[in-house]
Amino acid sequence: MLATDTAVAAALHDVHKVYRKQVRALDGVTLTFAAGTFTAVMGPSGSGKSTLLQCAAGLDRIDSGSIEVAGVRVDRLNETQRTLLRRDRIGFVFQSFNLLPSLTAAQNVELPLRLAGRRPSSGQVKEALAAVGLADRARHRPTELSGGQQQRVAIARALITRPAVLFADEPTGALDSTTSREVLALLRGIRQTIIMVTHDPVAAASADRVVFLADGRVVGELHSPDVDTVAARLAHLEA
Ligand SMILES: Nc1ncnc2c1ncn2[C@@H]1O[C@H](COP(=O)(O)OP(=O)(O)OP(=O)(O)O)[C@@H](O)[C@H]1O
Question: What residue stretches are annotated with the ABC transporter domain (predicted)?
């Protein structure tokens, strides 16, 4: 069931995505993401993690099946509609932060609102930076911030539009282990629907649930995961 359950932030049903008529990147994926839950997606290289994220976030089209995000059938939208959905209802955090270097932290955070033609109040931006522990860094440029601080600015930027789902692609991939832990604690604490692709069992163990992919299929799930169990399951899939 997809349509009316308000507790569901995102749902994929029997999703297929084939590249070049032969690579089955997603091969019948069915997954539900309850509102407010934090899910990690893991699997061997080439198992379809990035494809899942790109398709669920409306960045790429699927060949069959359905995808619903925030009550909207993403698979039925045209390109312009998908762009608007991404702008208004979806947040993104990337491994490489993707902040604009010439803008201050505050200007980076308010950018999504400006792009949507909305005038950010200074209180709103201050609040967003305070929520990620960077109230005192509003005027700093990305080069004046540590990697962890830059990622926290990126998280504040992703959340300023109050998205239905936050998609995170290896958000701790460029961070050392201490900084990673801080960013993961922040993600865990925001009580937001998060779908995060990661190779790191420590990062995955911060989530409420880990979904494992292999050859474009869901091959297992762990709830309230611990690092050792996640690492063992991943090693088994990679063997
Ligand atoms: N644009 C593309 N054109 C053709 N094949 C693609 C394309 N993108 C991905 N693939 C193939 O689809 C499959 C799934 O790729 P995907 O990038 O989703 O895997 P992944 O699990 O994210 O891998 P990794 O952990 O290495 O990033 C792979 O076999 C990949 O080679």
Answer: 10-239
1 pLDDT more than 50: no
In a domain, 233, yes or no: yes
CB neighbour class for 218 (10 Å; exposed up to 12, middle 13-18, buried from 19): buried
Flag whether 2 is in a domain: no
Q: What would the pLDDT profile of 20-69 be if each residue is shown by its tens digit?
A: 989 999 999 999 999 999 999 999 999 999 999 999 999 999 999 999 99
Query: Ligand 1 atom closest to Cα of 43?
Result: 21
Say if ligand 1 is within 6 A of residue 21 CB: no
* ipTM confidence: 0.97
Helices 122-131 and 105-115 cross at an angle (nearest 10°) of: 120
Cα–Cα distance measured from residue 204 to residue 130, given in angstroms and rounded to the nearest whole number: 26
Instruction: Return the H-helix or E-strand segment holding 12.
Output: strand 8-19
- Give the range of the structural domain holding residue 52, as residue numbers without chain letter: 8-238
Whether residue 47 has its Cβ less than 6 Å from ligand 1: yes
Residue 30 lies in a domain: yes
CA distance 239 to 235: 6
Determine the residue of 16, 49, 196 to mutate for testing ligand 1's pocket, defined as the one with the most ligand atoms within 8 A of the Cβ atom: 49
Query: What would the two tokens of residue 221 be?
Result: 């799930």
pLDDT of residue 6: 53
- For residue 88, give the 3-state DSSP assignment: helix
What average pLDDT does the segment 1-19 reach? 82
